[in-house]
Amino acid sequence: MSNLVSIDWLYNNIDNKNLVIVDCRFDLQSESYGIDNYKRGHIKNAFFMDVNKDLSSIPQEHGGRHPLPDINEFKLKIENIGIDNSSIVVAYDDGDLAGAARFWWLLKYLGHDKAYVLNGGIKKWIHQGYEIVTDVTIKEKTNYQVNVKKDILCDMYEVKSKLNNPKTVIIDSRSYDRYTGEFEPIDKIGGHIPSAKNVFWQEVLKDNELKEKHELNKIFEFAKKYDEIIVYCGSGITGCVNFLVMREIGLNPKLYAGSWSDWISYEDNQISKGSNE
């Protein structure tokens, strides 16, 4: 089954008591972008989750710019918005999938089956003429049983052990100029993990929606010959988009959650510049 739902599906199921909707809008350049826009208007019954405060923990020496949240703290946060193990959860953002895919990935990591992303996001919702509201959503607190799926996550040491392994492909999800090291607007060092190949996460989108499956299959055709796929980005956010897409076409990647910003925090780690393509 798809990991995405359509705008029409959400509209037709909006009052399902087992449905929990989560607004994950964010902007790396504006910390308050998500909550400000949520307050201006959101999809009916939606709760807000902040990428920096709820879907990440405080950065340390290692772990990257958006370390994964503490499992117990994240568990409490999803319980407080009414998510239990039987909930149907739909995450959305503006349509670029980045914030929504991060939340979706975290739910998958906790072992949640019925987690989905809204294809087209709130922008398509509004474009199709559906209403947005400013009401505060309230649900009863639940109890969530965590079943961590360690096989979808890897750390720096595992990535390091797989460099140049002929059975493993490492995919860098950042823009090509950041991948080559020609341009680095965020992290202190440019370049990429040695042997990594580049698939810019925005390449999977067209008009703020996911491309058709045959197009996605073509983009990731090269990865199908490998036994193992590791995907990363700058800090573990946009890499979740490529992770989602690969799951959508039947591949089973792992996310290097710390990503490039974690990799470069270890002085002895090698970096590559230019292209491996």
Strand proportion, as a percent range, falls in: 5-15%
Q: What strand order characterises the main sheet?
A: 1-5-4-2-3
Residue share in helix? 25-40%
Mean pLDDT across the residues is 96
Describe this structure in words.
The chain has 277 residues and is α/β, with parallel strands linked by helices. It folds into 2 domains: 4-148, Oxidized Rhodanese, domain 1, CATH 3.40.250.10; 151-263, Rhodanese-like domain (Oxidized Rhodanese, domain 1), CATH 3.40.250.10. It contains 10 helices and 12 strands. The strands form 3 sheets. Strands 1-5-4-2-3 form a 5-stranded parallel beta sheet, with helices on both faces. A 5-stranded parallel beta sheet has the order 6-12-11-7-8. Helix 4 crosses helix 9. The longest helix is centred in the middle third of the chain and has 12 residues, at 98-109. The chain is globular, with a radius of gyration of 18 Å. The mean pLDDT is 96.
